Amino acid sequence: MNRKLSRFTTKQKLSECEKYQHISNFTNRRVTEALELETILAHNGVDFTDICLPIGEQSDLNSDEHFLPIDIFDDRDFEPFDVETNDCWRQMEAFAILPPNAHWCCVRVINHDPPTNQLDVMEKDSSTLHRVHRLQLYFPFEDPHKFAKRIATAIEARKVAENTIRFRFICKWVYCGERIGPGQALQRSMLNRAGPEVYNIFKTLYEDYHLALDVGKLLDIPYSPITIRQPSMSGWKNGARNILPLHRGPICLSDRLDRVKRRTLLCDRNVFYALRLVNQECEVVRKVPLFVVSTEQPFTLEEFENQNISQTSKTIKYLQNTWVERTTMHLHRWLSRIGEGNFHIAVAKWEIYSMLKIKRLIEQVQYRMQDALKDMLLNATFAYVHFLVNDCPAIFDLCDEYCWDGNLIESPFEPARSPVFYLTLKMNPQAPYYSSDPDTFPAALRTIMDDVLAECHFIHTIEPSLMQSLAFAGNLYLSSLGLLDSVIVKQRNLLLEYYTKALLPLQAYAARYTAYRELFFTNEKEFIEGMKSSDKSSSEIKEDIAFQIRMRENLEHTVPLSIVIGPFWINVQPLREALIRKRFELTFALLTMLTEKLRIKTADVIGCYSAINERMCEKPVSIEQIYDIRAYMESVPELVSKLEDRMRGILYEYEILDSFLHNLPDADFEQKWKALAQPRAVLKQMLSVREFHESEVDRFRKQQFADETSFTASIEDTNAYISKFTTLYDPCKVSEMSVEVRRLWKVLQELIDHGHVMNRRQELFELAPISLNNLYELRHNFSAYRELWTVAADYLKLEETWIGNPLASVDLEAVRRGLQQTHDSLKELLVPFREQPQVLAVVEHFIHLVEAFRPNLDIMELLKCPYLEAIHWSQLAKEIGVKGKLSMDVGYDVFLAHGFRDHPETVRRVVLKAEQQRKEQEERWKEEEQIRQREEQYRQARAERRLKRTEI
């Protein structure tokens, strides 16, 4: 079974795939001439008469003419594209067949009607519009064979339908008597096994089936005037059978009264009372509230949905349970009093029930209940839409590009009735938004209405609950208003149009608050940091504070607490208060910043006053400091005057804070008045300092006499030590001598500097100056001796570095320059020591050392040749007799130790050989490079020739 089902599914998918065609290019024309299309259609058995119905009188069922339009059998699975979503067909040239013309002609496609799948076309040389069905219109980009198959499929389906209609029409009017009923044996067997009720149902089906078989055999005769075949008998339901006319005789008044009683429903007062109670229940239903249609204050969308769900669930529960139960109860109570007869509610046979008046009565009650249900839905839907569409005509006149151009307080969309919905305007970093998304309102309101209409289709009829002796299907419901009912569609469209239009001013109003987004998300600390970094003056900060105050007042006058736009009551108060609070915070932050700025300025002024006091009150350690302080005190009045001017400017800035009624903190207030009191305190301190200095001058004069005596003794001691030291002339102690010389020179310089200080103090005390001539003479005589030992010590250190460091790191130019400078300095010292033979010998000794080192320069220069390689160093070591590895990384002392200074010619010969080998090697490299370049040029030329070669 599963294998057969899967085979059937696969076959069905294949058939669907055969219908499908993919259009990749809608400009590609597969058929360019109408004659070509007609040829393809004719090849598939499609004629003009098959597509268009004959114009004239209605076709007779006894003829072979088609009487059903072909468009109702169109299989849209053949459609190559979606007409509603794809606009490629607009203004396109296509081929259409326009009755009464029997040929396809070229037209232009203008419009499309989705419900009927018909298109408006216009002939090429005419301005008349024609409406044709899709099967009468061929687009050039379609597959013509698929289009022909589509028409052929519709024609075949129409033939089957017309054949079935003709067959059933004939069967309806054929009467065969009792000859086709079940036999007596079958009748007795069915009655014994199942009972008369089941037998009656079986008999009806048996007769209908064999009647259709007999009619089919009758229609298969060769001389049948029309072609009718017996259709499939599945689901066959025979129509009403002809009833033989009754014999009519003379009727008297009593007979007529009896007939009226038999026909009318109100033949018993209990029926009348039952219908009256049914009517009362229906009137109650007509007034039942289905939606929430009144409010004292606006709802949020969520509250509105919840209240409607609560109200509708209560009403639907009443309709599905209470209403049906009460109506059944009333009918049962009154009809049960009648007892058996036409209104017998305990009837157990369908044949009897279908002939009784109670069936007509129940139908009448059902119609009344359906009318009440429809009236209730119409009234409720009208009230629902009337409540939500709160009479604001200006909304319907809006266009999609609407912008809110007016102020934010006055609304041009004030409705005649109260607003329905409550919204709160908020702000996020991207844009202003509402507490409920306005775009959800149309869909949500439509869903509320459509869901209730759908629920009202599931209210059971009273027939199963009243006629409990009969079996009924479980899906018997009262007929209600459909979702596509014209009245419902009109109300729904009105609701959707109103709320779709109402969203335009709502969103435009929110967009106006985008200007406040930057203010809303302004960070107070970052704002103040930006103001501080801009380094604005106090007057500019005052303007900023005034601007913030003006903007805050502007918000209070231009931003409303709330506003009504159509059905929406918008609460702007939280956003308004947040913006005003933000302006207030920025104002307070600016005032605080200005306060801090003034605090720093005032503290700076007080610091300047404190610095003046500290400078004046310094305890002098010398007479020079006293005179410096006195000189500074002479400028103090001017400094105090400048500080007073600065403080007056700061007081003007303090007045800015006073103008904004800003209270200073206690510490700032105290600091301000302290700064104002400082000038008087500074001038008072000057008098105390002058009195203190008078006593200090006497103390320093006494100290000066003692310092003068000590200075003279120091000069005599130094002179004696230098005279003794200059008798030393040992060249071997050059390092110790240079250190001691430098120390003595420093002592001399300090004595001279101290002498200058003593003379300045002598001048300040108005005393005679101290003579320093002997110090100057002593320094002059000692300078040549100092020069000798320092130059000698420096040269020995340089020579040690030249010899001890690796030869590669020695700078020969620096060596040559150092030798020359040392030699010149020593030559200049020969003249001063001409009369001192011992010292002169020392000078000559060091000159001889310098001259003795000069030959080493030539050897060092040869050894630093860059062309010397390991083989050359090996050759040098071998010729000179060195047992070891030589290189430029070895110190020159190693070369001296092996006697390189005695073999300059050997070194020069090896160096010249190395240079010659290097030149020869460079020439070989140059020749090899030229050969490589010529080979590369040859390979490139060969590659180019190969590219240009033409293959035959």
From TrEMBL:
It holds the Pfam family DHC_N2. Residues 911-951 form a coiled coil. InterPro entries: DHC, Dynein_heavy_linker. Residues 776-919 form the Dynein heavy chain linker domain. The keyword Coiled coil applies. GO terms for cellular component: dynein complex. Keywords: Coiled coil. GO terms for molecular function: dynein intermediate chain binding; dynein light intermediate chain binding. GO terms for biological process: microtubule-based movement. PANTHER family: DYNEIN HEAVY CHAIN 6, AXONEMAL-LIKE, DYNEIN HEAVY CHAIN 6, AXONEMAL-LIKE-RELATED. This is Dynein heavy chain linker domain-containing protein.
